[in-house]
Design a protein that fits this description.
Blueprint lengths: L1 E2 L4 H6 L1 H16 L1 E2 L9 H7 L10 E2 L2 E2 L7 H16 L3 E3 L5 H12 L5 E5 L15 H5 L1 E5 L10 H11 L3 E4 L10 H11 L2 E5 L4 H5 L12 E5 L10 E5 L4 H12 L5 H14 L2 H23 L3 E2 L8 E5 L7 H10 L2 E2 L1 E3 L13 E5 L1 H6 L6 H16 L3 H15 L7 E2 L1
Parallel strand pairs: 2-14, 6-7, 6-8, 8-9, 9-10
Antiparallel strand pairs: 1-17, 3-4, 5-11, 10-11, 12-13, 13-16, 15-16
Helix pairs in contact: 3-11, 4-11, 5-10, 7-8, 12-15, 13-15, 15-16
Length: 422
């Protein structure tokens, strides 16, 4: 059993780190990974990420670098850009942001000044830290206005969004977030942003692969700026992109470089290009729709077992579960599930009476298990394991938890992952 690609040089040079890499590969292979922001990349993406491109410094943009020796790097970056433009149907793409948070910061730098009013979804309701939450720089440097969801439906309150936008006239409005299980109404957000005179930023970090595969409506043509990570449903490396219409391209490029960062990570750029190439293939559309089918099947199976899902279900890859009725907090539940071979994260739920580090909910996603080949037929079994694990945690029954972990390993043995050979 070994990591793929093999790591013989690392093993010889630093057996301690190599051992941990091997351990992590085995852990990923032996667990049902339901963290909504994680996936398995292809071996081709892994190889690009670990290539000699990591040796090269490339401050600037293709054709306008501050270092020599860019003959091949420029081609790599331009391929990534063209593939992003073609896949999403956008005028412009910047593939240099190091991650999703810097990508969002670039939108602030491009179109707002410190102290300006900005608007985003409240973190406890499903928004992201960088959409103006108080502990983030975006909540400290700007004047944040936050919208939420309706208590009775768990869905975005667009009436509230419009009311707040017209009252406060923010420079930016963020649509999207990190725990939104329902379709984002980009046309409605665009209409509100236009009426309020704001730039609409669609943060599609979680749903980019679904958008690319036609399993979620696209923000293109509605949002002037689109930010995304590349490592969630898009199934690429840990990186990010910003896509814009023609009118907003120059400001975004200046914000990324020299505004926020120096040289891009060329090995990541290459891996993004590879992932975008994979996402352009017909089978990726099948994959994107399969993610949603798995999520809907898992939601239905959990509801049948008495779980309370925020908004009553899902339209995408993500489920948000309120465990209040199960008499257990999200944190101890998530920790018990991890011991049972089911990896997810504890998460706040809208109107959560508990503290963020000990919230009422758990967040699940189906992108990674879909990559492995699991189908809707497997979801009732996964729901049964989740239910048993939570009951065992409440009863302090570690033997039952260990038994479930063994059952999980037995199932997953038939569904190998890229990056590990059993």
């Amino acid at each position: 059993m070994t990591h793929q690609p093999a790591i013989p040089e690392l093993t010889a040079a630093d057996p301690q780190i190599a051992g941990l890499v091997e351990d992590e590969a085995r852990r990923q292979a032996e667990k049902i990974r339901l963290i909504a922001s994680e996936n398995y990349v292809s071996q081709a993406v892994l190889e690009a990420t670990g290539s000699v491109l990591t040796n090269k410094y490339s401050e600037g943009y293709a054709g306008k670098r501050y270092y020599e020796g860019q003959q091949f790097i420029d081609q790599v970056e331009q391929i990534a850009i063209e593939r992003a433009k073609a896949l999403f149907g956008v005028d412009h793409a910047n593939v240099q942001p190091y991650s999703g948070s810097p990508a969002n910061l670039a939108a602030y730098l491009a179109f707002a000044s410190p102290g300006d009013t900005v608007m985003g979804m409240a973190l406890p309701d499903g928004g992201h830290l960088t959409h103006g939450w108080s502990v983030s720089a975006t909540g400290k440097w700007f004047n944040p206005v936050r919208y939420g969801v309706r208590k009775e439906t768990g869905r975005v309150d667009l009436d509230q969004v419009r009311e707040l936008a017209l009252e406060h006239r923010p420079k930016l409005i963020f649509a999207g977030g990190t725990a939104i299980p329902r379709t984002i109404d980009f046309p409605a957000f665009a209409e509100i942003a236009k009426e309020a005179g704001a730039v609409l930023v669609a943060d599609i970090a979680h749903i980019a692969g679904l958008v690319a595969g036609g399993a979620h409506p696209s923000p293109v043509g509605h949002a002037q700026v689109i930010t995304t990570t590349t490592h969630k449903t898009l199934r690429g490396p840990r990186g990010a992109m910003i896509m814009t219409d023609a009118d907003h391209a120059k400001a975004i490029d200046k914000a990324v470089f020299p505004g926020l960062q120096g040289g891009p990570h060329n090995h990541t750029t290459a891996a993004i290009a590879v992932a975008l190439g994979e996402a352009a293939k017909p089978e990726f559309r099948d994959y994107a729709h399969a993610i949603v089918a798995n999520a809907k099947a898992l939601a239905e199976a959990l509801i049948e077992r008495g779980f309370d899902l925020v908004s009553g279900g899902t339209d995408n890859h993500l489920l948000l579960v309120d465990l209040t009725s199960k008499q257990i907090g999200g944190k101890p539940a998530a920790q018990a599930l991890d011991r049972a071979g089911i990896e997810l994260n504890y998460n706040t739920v809208p109107f959560d009476p508990r503290k963020p580090f000990d919230p009422s909910g758990i967040r699940l996603g189906t992108a990674a298990i879909t990559t492995r080949g699991l189908t809707p037929e497997h979801q009732p079994q996964i729901a049964e394991w989740i239910d048993r694990s939570i009951a065992a945690a409440a009863a302090n029954d570690e033997d039952a938890i260990n038994k479930i972990a063994g059952e999980v390993r037995d199932l997953l043995a038939a569904y190998p992952i890229p990056g590990y050979r059993a």
